[in-house]
Design goal:
This protein is an alpha+beta fold. The protein folds into 3 domains: 2-108; 142-204; 212-361, Histidine kinase-like ATPase, C-terminal domain (Heat Shock Protein 90). The protein is built from 9 helices and 7 strands. The strands form 2 sheets. It has a 5-stranded mixed sheet with strand order 2-4-5-7-6, covered by helices on one side. A two-stranded antiparallel sheet has the order 1-3. It starts with a helix and ends with a strand.
Amino acid sequence: MKRLGWKLLLSHIVVVVVGSAVLGIVAHFHAPRAFQTHILRMQALIGTDSGLAADLQRTFSEAIGEILVVSGAAAAFAALIVSSFVAWRIVAPIRSLTAASKRIAAGDYGERVVAQWDDEIADLAASFNRMAETLQQTEARRVELIGDLAHELKTPLTTIRSMMEGLVDGVLPAEAETFLDIQRETRRLQRLTDELRELSRTESGTVPIRPQPCEPGALVEQVLGRLTVQFEDKEIRLRRDIPERLPLVSADPERMVQVLTNLVGNALQYTPSGGTVIVRLRRAGRTVVFNVEDTGIGLSREEASRVFERFYRVEKSRSRLHGGSGIGLTIAAHLVDAHGGRLTVESAGPGLGSTFSFALPIAD
């Protein structure tokens, strides 16, 4: 940073020196002619004394040189003061940014810089603070993800280990029910690893998307047909609002069924018995909008802003067995993004239900 300050200082000095040199050269060539012109006008007053005219010209040239030297020195001194201020004005915020970036690189993601002026340096500081905020949030989510993932793996592994120890010690009988419980926990592990692999692929954008003309109503009916029995078992009304003659949409049918299954399954999970889940379709311009509405537990504003985060659960007290892995909505959001859309959620508040929505473009 010291080198930058010296460069700024030298740049101002160079400007002054060049300006003074140009001024001296112009004065050297132009001043005698200008002075001679005025001498011709003064000859009527000073007579024809050539010695007096030469003395005046010499005195004038010396005065001009003296003025240029004094003004050049004054300009250089002024440039030194001004350039020092400008260098400090520019270098000081950059030094702060450098120090803050070093602390962030060392792991202190709470570091921020203060912008004192409203200019490009302030814009740089604001961008730096936004970057630091993003890094801090990313680090917090990474730590939370590791903890959640460890918990997700610990629960079934602990259950399996306990059952196996019980079998070895003879505490648990070697019956079909015991082995079915072990198989059930193993399936939970398998499902979790499959979801994590799918999440990794969707977040990295490596999931193949093969869009083709699809009938939106057929996609919905395929999903609802799979989940009808589960809705009946939980005594939740499952309705659809699908207008006739909807245009075809451009989408990967397999991925869209996956998205709708996650959304409808989520509504089933968080809607109490006696509630209602409605899947609505409507056309909006050159898109078809999919809405999954429920009369479930609803969301607060903070919950709505985080519901698509990995492993996030609205009800922290729900068991891992009945609460899902907390990855399905994240995968659904990424799949909708891969189709050029955006998955959103709206809720009037806790206990007032939720509506998940996304739109797909109409097929050409």
